[in-house]
Amino acid sequence: MISATELPSTRPYLIRALYEWCSENGFTPYVAVKVDNSVQVPREYVQGGEIVLNVSMDATSSLKLGNEFIEFKARFGGKPRDIMVPIHRVMAIYARENGQGMAFPVSDEDSKPIPVNALAAAKSIEQTDEPPQPPPAASGRPALKRIK
User: Fold this and answer.
1) Under a CB-based contact definition with an 8 Å cutoff, are residues 22 and 63 in contact?
2) pTM of the prediction?
3) Largest CB tally within 10 Å, which of 32, 44, 78, 148?
């Protein structure tokens, strides 16, 4: 019998399932990420140590939702960037249009703080050229709803 510590995480499987659900139902899948030094994103778009990424097919190219990383190419302010997010840094995946999705715990024990000057330069939380959408919840995070 395999112990619980030897089992692979369910997080990448749930992320892929919710990504598929969003895509098949015409919703825009977003992932909220807790940024540390292991996360490869444009630091100027990080706000409060977090970034929200549009991972729809329209906003990304070469998207790979793997068991260890989410990887893709996207444009930020018109400039192409390579993005790599360790799965364990994903705080949530949800549909932009209705907030339905799933949140995940993210531990700060393993993370290293991001430089303060990177946070000061934060401008936006989206990588598209569209204006940012106001957050659905007062905390700045999406109000996640249970999927039926």
Assistant:
1) no
2) 0.73
3) 32
